[in-house]
Amino acid sequence: MSSGSVHDDLIRTRRVPAPAGLYMDHVNVILLGRGPCALFDAAYAETAEEVIGWLRQAAPGGLQTLILTHHHRDHLGGATALCEATGAQAYAHPIEIPLMKARQPSLEVKPIEDGERVRAGEAELEAVLTPGHSPGHLSFWWEEKRILFGGDNVLLPTTTSIAPPTGRLSDYLRTLRKLLALEPRIIHPGHGSPVRDPAGRIRALLAHRAQREAQVLAALAKGLSTPAGIAGDIYRGLGEARIRMGTNMVRSHLEKLVEEGRARDEAGTFRLLER
Ligand SMILES: [Zn+2]
To answer: Is the distance from CB of 226 to CB of 206 less than 8 angstroms?
Structure first.
């Protein structure tokens, strides 16, 4: 990360290694501010002590706010322990809160709505509802600096998993276009490195999804009809874990084609409709 400018020094990212057995090998937690700070995401339950220890040094002024971008375990896991240890208040979008409470019943989460202004450390951010990866996924826009805290929407070098039923591809594609229109200068993501060419990366992700859709259409055209069968064809030779992830991705493409009236779902098998 480049140094010397005020905003870089206000934003500190910690890459938290994942417990064994997860597909992603780490998650980022991002600290914003110098006085009472805000933290984006809480990493895993298993790494809560590590993050709390880091916060004691990195946020001597205390942690006021824990912003949870979405309910997945790599972002939510440490939340209850972290709020108990620091006294921070957790926030999330109202759609995500029941999903979070199902996993962490004693976590107190206050709602943030789309468009709401949120104080985070010294920054004033705007909450942006960015569904697709998760139905109430929030990103945060620091307009003054043109910095986006993007959660899991725009990653580098990996792509975002969209797993129905909570993941929805048509929403995700709308989200990508919405983020492109903001014209961010940099995106701080939930995994991987800061995205320093957001427009280029978002266009590449849109192109990648279009290419996958073409592959799914081609597979349907040659008579493949199940998500697993189509994924086995598209991700051939890439190993079982990749094919399992790919099956969710194919399912999300099929769901989009059904929504658009281009394919029909017949109890879990799919076929193309004439146009
Ligand atoms: Zn996620």
So the answer is: no
pLDDT at position 8 is 55
Q: If you measure from the C-alpha of residue 241 to the centroid of ligand 1, how many angstroms do you get, rounded to a whole number?
A: 17
Q: How far is the CA of 273 from the centre of ligand 1 (A)?
A: 32
Q: Note the pLDDT tens digit of each residue in 238-261.
A: 888 888 889 999 999 999 999 999
Q: Which CATH number fits domain 209-272: 1.20.144, 1.10.10, 3.30.310, 3.30.1240?
A: 1.10.10
Q: What percent of the chain has pLDDT over 70?
A: 97
In 3D, which of 94, 123, 103, 93 has the Cα closest to residue 30? 123
Q: How far is the CA of 151 from the centre of ligand 1 (A)?
A: 8
Query: What is the CATH number assigned to the segment(s) 6-196?
Result: 3.60.15.10
- 3 has a pLDDT exceeding 80: no
Q: How far is the CA of 75 from the centre of ligand 1 (A)?
A: 7
Cα 197 to middle of ligand 1, angstroms: 22
| pLDDT of 6 above 50 | no
Ligand 1 centroid–CA 175 distance in Å is: 15
Q: How far is the CA of 135 from the centre of ligand 1 (A)?
A: 11
Residue 275: the pLDDT is 65
User: Where in the chain do CATH 1.10.10 domains reside?
Assistant: 209-272
Q: Does residue 1 have a pLDDT over 50?
A: no
Beta-ladder partners of 123: 120
Q: Which residues contact 81 (CB under 8 A, 6 or more apart)?
A: 45, 48, 49, 52
CATH 3.60.15.10-classified regions of the chain? 6-196
**Cα–ligand 1 centroid distance for 17 (angstroms):** 15
